[in-house]
Every structure is written in structure tokens, then in C-alpha cells.
Predict the structure of Glutamine--fructose-6-phosphate aminotransferase [isomerizing].
Amino acid sequence: MCGIVGAVAQRDVADILLEGLKRLEYRGYDSAGVAVIDSRGELRRLRRLGKVQSLADAVHASPTPGGIGIAHTRWATHGEPSEANAHPHMSGDIAVVHNGIIENHETLRDQLKAQGYVFTSQTDTEVIAHLVERELKSADSLLAAVMAARTQLHGAYGMVVIDRQQPDRMIVARSGSPLVIGFGIGEHFIASDQLALLPVTRKFAFLEEGDVAEITRQSVSVFDKNNEAVVREPQESTVEHDAGDKGEFRHYMLKEIYEQPQAIANTLEGRLFNGQLNLEALGDLSDIEQVQIIACGTSYHAGMTARYWIEELAGVACNIEIASEFRYRKSVVRPNSLLVTISQSGETADTLAALRLAKELGFARSLTICNVPGSSLVRESDMALMTRAGAEIGVASTKAFTTQLVGLMLLTVALGRGRGLSTDKEKQIADALTHLPGLIEKALGMNSAIQQLAENFAEKHHALFLGRGDQYPIAMEGALKLKEISYIHAEAYAAGELKHGPLALIDSEMPIVVVAPHNDLVEKLKSNIEEVRARGGELIVFADEAADIRPEANMQVMDVPHCDDIVAPILYTLPLQLLSYHVAVIKGTDVDQPRNLAKSVTVE
Ligand code: G6P
């Protein structure tokens, strides 16, 4: 999704801005642009459709020296991807970059047009540029002009404004889209994600909802939504490593798949030792009678898996809903309900809105299971369980998902203690989690076999994924991964539902992927496999040897290392991730930045 970088410094900022944009590429975008006020006081803007590299080539072909500038990667919402619609947008001496959506842009556009402003793009952002330009005519400072402009804006924004006439300051404002200020020595930066600024600083202050700030080389002045001066203390970044490097791997996604043993070990650090689970961070949950999980995308699948665990192992009622649905319907909240949001980014607009709504609905408290420290969901929830997967760059979520599942298993234990969960069962869970990183390492050994399997798959246009019980959400996640990065249409079904429709689709052109650990449902699953075989379907079954599923005509069986049932959803995710990855590589798609998708979806 859109990315913002800005800088005010004593040195030339163009390369800092471009490096920042490159670090935000993983979020997904379709065009990029930069505007710098040069040493002669000219405002120079360059924009390009496509990759940041083509913008960087253009900047290097026509060097743009200057100590203040703003830059942007755009993910189209209003107006097609094009150079004219790329940010920064300008009005006179003003240049603006913006993330989010201005909902009343049409009304403002008509008003501004009537006053003589000429629009050169189809974007909602351009109204901000003209509005600030107009307000500046009667305001005594750029800060006052932005403050006046924002009172007229409805919707979500993170924005940065510069003025050619005042080349010593950036004005930034946050409402609904995150912004972080980076502190240097005699220089300051702004970005929508701290990852963009890691090469220049590790000291960050997060703006709160409704904040406006005036940023110069020497000072940062922040004002809250009532325009009262406030202090947002800078903190040292806890982002562990600079994820900007693919190392020996061809794609970030593959690197991140291979990082899962370590990522899971990190999630468990301090929370599991000597076979004992330490769940202090989750506090006392004995009053909780009901859990409501809210999430989107891959995180939603983690939540769906957890529902099986929380009801079966902890004996606590659990509902799960997609955030964009929850936020727009009337829901009934039972007493002593815990709201759980799950999010790799901590910034997903729908999930955040659902959390804010939930606060009004009377949930006992809120917990987020999240991968980004300091993100909006972490700051606005009562409790946070960090997944510690490290920065995930590939748009298709891998290690963020499996570490979410581990976090949710910890939550299940915390909920179950003293009620549905026996001490023996807790010990079994602790043992299974102890062995999990090693098992995942073993499952990675399936890589070459899966790469071969992918050869046949790549020509297909559709695929079905089947699972039962807590493997059904894993089948959904497998189908989502395939869709996201290989563009093959894929659907997941609970295997028992096959006969109610999808069986009609089965023929030799339809690959059917089945996840079959050795659990209580395996005999039922075998019957579902037979239903498909009898109709000429091409089966690929990922199975535990103990499940005793043998290869047959039209049925390949891929052995998955034997594991405890409890952690099987986490383990069986691995081969499905590898399958999608290899199919996408064979098809030649952009694995890390699939078309039309974004890593962090900060608009509705
Ligand atoms: C986007 C990402 C997905 C992610 C979803 C929810 O669509 O591409 O990978 O699952 O958003 O994001 P969240 O950050 O809330 O987990």
C-alpha cells in the first residue's frame, strides 16, 4: 500500500528518499514520485509509473540536489495507476504526499474548481494540495494552513506537505494512516513505516491519531487533534535486523519460509522453557467467558484455526469474523468477552477500525497478536502478544502466519488453564511446541520434491484445497497463497462439504490438494479422497506416513514429517507455502510483490 518518506537535512536528501521508497516496495505499489526543493529554491518533482528503480534512474539522470524533500509509492485507489496520478501532487508552491482516502474529495474538488483551481489528476490527494494552497493565503504559517485544511477533510490520511517558499520545514498530519518521525543529528525524517528510515536513524517517535507536526532540521513540534502542543517521546527502534537483504535466496518469500524455525523459536523465547509455558504476559484470563477474534487475509486464517483450539482445548466459546464485516454490522457482545485482533502489520485499516468499534461495544478487554512493535494495534490494545517473526517483506505472509499460530496456541493455554485444559494436555502442548522448530526444519527438506511437483501444477487454471477440522483453515491459507502469487484460481473446502457442490468441478484438469495429518478425522478424509478419485480428479495429498495413504493412479502422496496433532496446522502450512512459491516462480510472476496487492492495507 502507499508509502511515504520525507526528510529535512543539511545534506542532499534525494538518495535517502529513494532508499526509503525501496524499503517500502514490499508494501505493494504501482507508481512512485519524489519532490525536492533544490539549493536555488526550485521545487523539482519527478514521477514514474512502475518500479522505484525507474524513478531512481530518472533522478540520477537529472540530479536533484536539495536538503528537503518528500517521496511516495502509490497504490491506486482514486484514479488509474499513471504518472499524472502519482504523488507528490502540487498546487503553486505546495507539494503533498498522502496515504489514505479523502472521502469528501468530490465536494472539495467542485468547490476548489469553482474558485479557479485546475486539477491535473484524478486523485483524492490533489484536493489536499489545493486546499493547503488556498488556506495559506489567509494563514500566518504553513502549519496553520495545514491545520485549517484538515478540519475540512473527511476520511483517512497520513500526509506530508512542503512549501517552496519555506524550504526549512515539513508539516505532517496523521488521521487513520500511520506516520513515524525519525530523529537524526541536525536532521529529521518522516515515514509511513520505520523500515524506510533504518539506514539513517534508529530513533523514532510515533504520531498519535489527530496529530499534526512541524518538522525542521533542529526541531519537532507536535500538536494533538485540538491543536494543543504535546510531546511524543522518541524511542530506540526494536526492529531487530535490517530486512533489506535477501541473502542467498532468490526471493524474500523463500527466505522468510526458511526463517520459520528461527522465527518460531523467537516467538517461544521466554514463554517456553524446560517444558513449561510462561504466559504471564497474557495476565489473568479466568474471567473471560467468550473470545471474539477479528482479522483480515492470512491473519483471519490464523484466527479460524485458533477457534478450533480455543473451543476444543480451552473449552471457551470463540467466534471469528473478518474485520471489514464486523465493523459494519451490529454485533451482540456477551459479558466478559475478550476481543482478539490478529495482524502482521498492526496497521490494517479494517482491523484497527474494528478494535476502535469494539471499545464502544463493551468488550472486557482487547488483545492483539501482532508482529510490529509500536504499531497502531499494539498501541491501542489493552494487551499485546508480539509474534517476533522479524520484518516480513514478501507480500504473501509466511513466517508472520506460523508465528501467529504459535501465539494463538499460547493464548489457548492461557485461556484453558483452570478450566478445559488438563495439566497433561498442557504438557503435551508444551512438548509439541518444543519440537516444532526442529520439525519445521525437517519439513523444509520437502523443498526439492515440491519444486518438481510444481512443474505440472503451473499449467493449471484452477485448484481445490481440502482439509478437515483445524486443517480446513490451513487449506484456505494454501489456496490464498496460490491465488496471491501465482494468479491461479484456487478455492478451499472443508472436505466434508465437497459433495454439496464442488464435486461438480472435478475432472482431470482440476488439481486437488489435500492436507492429511494422522488425526481423528483421517478416516473421514480418506472417504473424501475416494470421492474425488472416483471422478477422475488429480490428487496431491500431503500426509503423515501413519495416516496410511498410499500413492495410486492420479494420486501423489507427499510424506510430511510425523508430528503431534496439536501442532499439525502449523507444520502442514509449510509444504503449501513451498508449493505456491515454486508454482509462482515457474509461472514467472512477481513473487514478492504480486500484482494489485499490498503488504499493509491502510485504507478500507
Ligand atoms: C494484506 C496482506 C496479507 C495480510 C492482510 C492482513 O492483504 O497482503 O498478507 O494477511 O493484509 O494484514 P495484517 O497486517 O492485518 O495481518
Observations:
- DSSP finds 17 helices and 27 strands in the chain.
